[in-house]
Amino acid sequence: MNQQRRSQGPLLRFTKMHGLGNDFMVVDAISQPFRLRPDTIRDLANRNFGIGFDQLLVVEPPGLPDVDFRYRIFNADGSEVEQCGNGARCFARFVRDQHLTNKKVIRVQTAKGVIELRVGRDGMVMVNMGVPELNPPAIPFAADRRKDVYTVDVDGQTVELSAVSMGNPHGVLVVEDVDTAPVDTLGPKLERHPRFPARANIGFLQILDRSHARLRVFERGAGETLACGSGACAAVVAGCLRGLLDYRVEVELRGGKLVIEWQGDGTPVMMEGPATSVFEGQLRLPADSGSRRRKGSGRPHKQRS
Ligand SMILES: N[C@H](CCC[C@H](N)C(=O)O)C(=O)O
């Protein structure tokens, strides 16, 4: 028994959530110690041997004076990233469901800035996703100057795409039909293309008319997901830059619809959509999962991935 107990780490409470089928493990790291190594995250993300999720979302105390929480995001491959739009909506629902706040407007610090979440009466959540970044070095995307559309060589094939950061990097292609788009073949090649030095989320955008579009996204660190909130924002920005979309667009993803608004250069992208809580659970972490407290410290050591 002792041997078995010694090999066991602490219990970790979590909530399983999704935004249009883009699914998350959400952890309150305010009321419980939390630190997971990338390999433990990968194990937990596994849909056969773990909990199964596209991203792990972590709620932490604020690190800045005028924000309510800090929001950390880890992909299924264990990589920590800067932004998750569907996750932001679930974050807002989670902190209210868990009584961590009763605010209607919640300011959240991410790795790349502050986003503002607003919970609506109809259960929808509005997110101010911030101003898109189009300057290549800041995306990051390798290009000698900013363009609305770049041509990229992929194994001898010339691909046209737009490059946009919503805090996280996106490449967006316009396609005739998302159902026949080469998501599985071109997605992974572009995700790791050398012109995206931090890798990228790759969106395949089908324009239906100036206010309706369809989108599939091959996500960095997770593969194709049923929906990508930051990807929908990046896709609308790309469509507007190309003169194909108006400022308010209904984006249909495989998991459902988002409404995205963008008034143009220098203005923030607004996203509205649902956030769903599926179940609450707890799991016994392995002793070496990285969630142990440092000797002598009152707070759990924060993972620096
Ligand atoms: N895979 C993304 C993070 C999750 C984004 C997505 N789930 C969303 O809703 O925005 C990245 O590596 O930047």
UniProtKB/TrEMBL annotation:
Query: What InterPro entries does the database record attribute to this sequence?
Result: DAP_epimerase_AS, DAP_epimerase_DapF
- Indicate where this protein resides in the cell: Cytoplasm
Q: What class of enzyme is it?
A: isomerase
Pfam annotation, one family:
DAP_epimerase
Q: Keywords assigned by UniProt?
A: Amino-acid biosynthesis, Cytoplasm, Isomerase, Lysine biosynthesis
The record's function comment reads: Catalyzes the stereoinversion of LL-2,6-diaminopimelate (L,L-DAP) to meso-diaminopimelate (meso-DAP), a precursor of L-lysine and an essential component of the bacterial peptidoglycan.
**What is annotated about its quaternary structure and interactions?**
Homodimer.
This protein's name: Diaminopimelate epimerase
Identify the species of origin: Marinobacter metalliresistant
